[in-house]
Amino acid sequence: MGVLGALLLPLASRPASYQILLGSVATQDYQAPRNISYVSEVLTENKISTVKASVPNIYLPVDPAIARHQIDRLRKSLDFINLVRLDNITDSNLKIEDLAQLDDIQLTKENAIKLLSMSESEWQNIQRESISVLEQVMRASIRDSQVSEAQSRIPSLISYTFSEENALTIQALTLPFVVPNSLFSKESTDKAIQDAIQKVEPVEKSFATGEIIIRRGQILDATAFEALTKMDLISPKDQGQQIISATIFTATLLFIIGIFFSKRRISHDSTKQLLVLAITFLFFLFFAKFLIPNRTIIPYLFPVAGFSFVISALFGFEASFVLTFILSCFISYGTSDFFTLVVYYLLPSLGGALILGQGRRISIFFAAGGLTGLLGASLIFSIKFLEGSTDWLGLITLVVASFFNGMASASIGLLFQYFLSQILGITTAIQLLEIARPDHPLLQFILKNSPGSYQHSLQVSNLAEQAAKDIGADQLLTRVGAIYHDAGKAMNPSFFIENQVTGQINSHDDLDPYISAATIIQHVTDGVDLAKKYRLPLRIIDFILEHHGTLITRYFYVKAVEQNNNEIDKVNEENFRYPGPIPQSKETALLMLADGCEARARAEKPQSKEELRSIVQKVIDFCQKEGQLVNTELTMSDLHIIQNSFTNTLINSYHPRIKYPELKNKKEAI
Length: 670
What we know:
By secondary structure, the chain is mainly α. The protein folds into three domains: about 110 residues, no CATH class; about 190 residues, Orthogonal Bundle (Arp2/3 complex 21 kDa subunit ARPC3); about 220 residues, Orthogonal Bundle (Hypothetical protein af1432). It is about 65% helix and about 0% strand. It is built from 30 helices and four strands. Helix 12 runs antiparallel to helix 16, helix 21 crosses helix 22 and helix 23 packs across helix 25.
């Protein structure tokens, strides 16, 4: 389990996403792994920016105080010019220099000379017109972006009675005093922007399963980067948290596996089975992690049910349920659809495993695969409709993938079952049914050479099979094992009572008890040799070896004791003992009990059910007393059920029959 955990940790940590940067070039086509809708912060922010840009600046109403202030400034400048003109002491050059010192009006030398040289009447007219023009300009709304436009209107406001030269002078005097009189209101503008932003609805972005997010070679812009992030297709630079998460996740599931195996005894060869189970588990897991991440259809194609079928056929449904659940969790971990995939993998697999059972026919594997595909398709429709998907092409694709998954699982399950059963020495139901066919070469050999032993084996198999059904043991294995348990008798059939014709000489009458016992015991080793020759499974060989356990051939042992004047010490009991081992499973124990009960019932010919029950009880008590059942896990309750089962089956086999009278013809009557 430690090796399994060490292998799963890096595997579970493997990211199902890419390390790409905003503004980088996409190295492949990126597709949406599932249907997804989300509020796009990028697109919403872009919309907000557009709305903000569309809100116009808000300006205050025209402020008359600004116009009055500018007119007052113009008057002061004109008064200064007027003082310079009236100065008769200063020469012209100094006057020009004085006019150049004006702060608000930048007069050229030519304009200064002209102002100093014009007549007083002209100057008075220019002063009045300048003030009048400025007043007209400032009456209109002037914003900071409209100053140039307002200044350009000055020439059209000057009276046409002025000469062009004087009009230019008026324009030069007026133009510097044109300023904005409708000021920008930042507070009002900000409020308008906030009101507009409040009305913006979040932008929702949707992708259907398989839809291209960005194509190879395109620049990864903010919108595409956000989409990849929402779908968990971009891994963070720091993967420390992912590794910690994967470690905890792996440890949790391995703990569950540990609890399961600590409560379950798989077989006498559990170490080998655990190793093969771990390798098979890891094979499916590595293969899944190699194929599934960042794919849309492949997760629905992966045959997890194949693993479930193998485990169910070889180890039973309970092991299949636990291990399939663990495998589904590990495969789905790190994907964007964890819960969806776990449900999709687990439920159809378990449904198929229930149909499969022990997998007694090849056709049942494909029936289980068909059911798996059908259940998977039903879950796909259910989940996708719940998500509101209307992509019918995508749904049909996933449904086809589900049915392919089912058939692939059946094929893989059948293939893996064969190979793993060979490796582990586990006998599958298909193998058992194959060798149980009456036309099997070894059965034909037994029937031809020892028909009495063959009929005895059929009766024992029927007896043991019914009891196996009642106590929950493997019926099929018990039946087939019982059919072959006396195969070795076919090598020396005349030495066994069931093959001897009534009235003929018993082969043992003139033999030494030791030789007779050895001949009888030899049927076990002969049976093993025949089983190996005809390539019977190891579990069937167990039935041949264990059906007499380490009991002794009591008839010949007693005969040997009698020949030695009833002196027990002179007879070595081990010379009359079967090689064993004692039964190691419920199934072989049932065979031992059924074999003993059938033989004694045939020999003693009980006349009532009570006598049959007594015979059965004596056989069970004897086997218990001899310590033959200690390794079989049979409980007292099981033994009570076995007694009732054997009694009921035997009473039907040994019920009294009517002797039909013969009809004599008339001539015979005369």
